[in-house]
Structures are given as C-alpha cells and as structure tokens.
Write a structure and sequence with these properties.
By secondary structure, the chain is mainly alpha-helical. Helix content is 80%, strand content 0%.
Length: 241
C-alpha cells in the first residue's frame, strides 16, 4: 500500500510543479504564463481521457506489468524533463506523463489496493492509501525544496529538483518489481467456480455511471478546486509563494 500510494502521489507532483515552483519554472524553462497554463491543460485533458483508457487496459493486460510500465514511463519522462528541453518537447513530456501517470496506473492501482483486503476492509484500505499518498507527496516536495535551496542558479536548482523525482521513480520501480503481488497470476492458479449471477457488462456500467448525478457533482468539485487554486495564485502570487 505504501509503495502504490507513493506512486499515486508522485505521478502528479512534477506535472503540477507550477503550484509550488512557478517562478522557478518560468526562469528555468524560459516559458511564458500562457505556455505554462497550456502545459497544465494538456496534461489535465490527457488525464481525464486516461481514466477511461486505464479501465480498458486493466481488463486486457497484467496489472503488475502495467504498474511497472507506469513507473518506468514516468521515470523516463522525468529524465527528459530534467534536460530542460524546449516548449515542443515539454508538450510531448506532459502528454507522456498524462498517459503513464493515469492510463497505465490508475485502475491497476485501485484494483491492487482492493485486493489487499476483503469487502469490509475497503474503506480503511482506501482511506489509509489516500493519507499515505498525501504524506509521500509532501515529503518529496519538501525534499525538492531543500535541494532547490542548495543551488544559487535557478536552472541548476530546478534541474536537481526534477532529478529527485527521477530517482524516486527508479526506486519505486524496483520496489514494485520486488514487493507488489501479481494478483492476476494468482487468480489463474485458483480453480474457477461457476457463479449463477450474471455480471453487468463494463459498457453498461459506464453508461450508468455517466448518467449518475453524483459523478458530475464530484467532477464539478474537482475542476472547481483546481480553478480556485490557480486563480488564488494569480491574485495573491507573492503571498502564495
């Protein structure tokens, strides 16, 4: 749980690094405010689409392999980011992070956490996972802040900050390989029992969720929070930093 929760937190740390290191990002990458906003929008759009794709991939591919691919993809994308590339390359990087951070990770993450306990333990499992996710993200962010302070030049400090994330993903990749159970392989070894109930198809489930008012209420709240965070930074930039 700790490993997966840490990955879930770090997957969004670098793509949204502007919330903590906006001025440094402007200088190090030689970007404009509009370009930084566009990068965030690109990653956000890919993430939204990625949640749908993630469910499909998780049904077709091995869960543990998807988690490994996600970590390797994020490490490689972050390493490219650390070269402080041009704007076109940054667009591709944010597209890749949207894919590897969500499409190949999110549903496998949820399914693995779910498999760590029985039905009665799901609330505790996911609640604990969210807490660990926040703590891991905060700890790495503070580490990035400390590393940034070691350098007098903004570009070198920002580059070192990104490399911290690269190192974190490399370590997490190794931990996933060593410690995450392969639940898909274990299920194939178990004898299959015929169940009388008929399961609802995935497509019907998507339709039912799509027309559920709670889904749109949650979506509205998430986008509203992101908007308010960005708007507050623009209005109170100095106080925010």
């Amino acid at each position: 749980m700790i490993i997966l929760s840490a990955i879930a937190g770090l997957n969004f740390l670098l793509p949204y690094i502007r919330f903590s290191f906006y001025d440094q990002m402007l200088v190090a990458l030689d970007l404009t405010d509009t370009q930084i906003g566009a990068l965030g929008s690109i990653h956000g759009l890919l993430s939204v689409l990625g949640y749908f794709l993630s469910g499909i991939l998780a049904e077709k591919a091995n869960i543990k392999k998807l988690l490994i691919i996600s970590c390797i993809g994020m490490a490689a994308s972050s390493l490219w980011y650390a070269t402080l590339p041009d704007y076109t390359s940054l667009i591709i990087i944010h597209v890749l992070m949207g894919f590897f951070g969500v499409s190949t990770f999110w549903t496998p993450y949820l399914k693995t956490i779910r498999n760590l306990g029985n039905h009665s333990e799901q609330g505790r499992l996911f609640g604990t996972s969210e807490a660990v996710r926040g703590v891991a993200q905060t700890l790495v962010a503070f580490l990035c802040l400390g590393v940034m302070a070691l350098f007098a030049e903004v570009k070198m400090g920002f580059q070192a900050l990104v490399l911290v994330n690269v190192a974190a993903f490399v370590i997490l990749t190794i931990l996933v390989i060593l410690f995450i159970p392969d639940f898909d392989k274990e299920k194939t070894k178990e004898p299959t029992l015929e169940k009388p109930e008929v399961k609802e198809s995935t497509s019907k489930g998507f339709v039912k969720i799509f027309f559920n008012s709670s889904t749109w209420m949650c979506t509205f709240l998430v986008f509203l929070c992101l908007y308010l965070m960005d708007h507050s930074r623009k209005l109170h930039g100095n106080l925010y930093h």
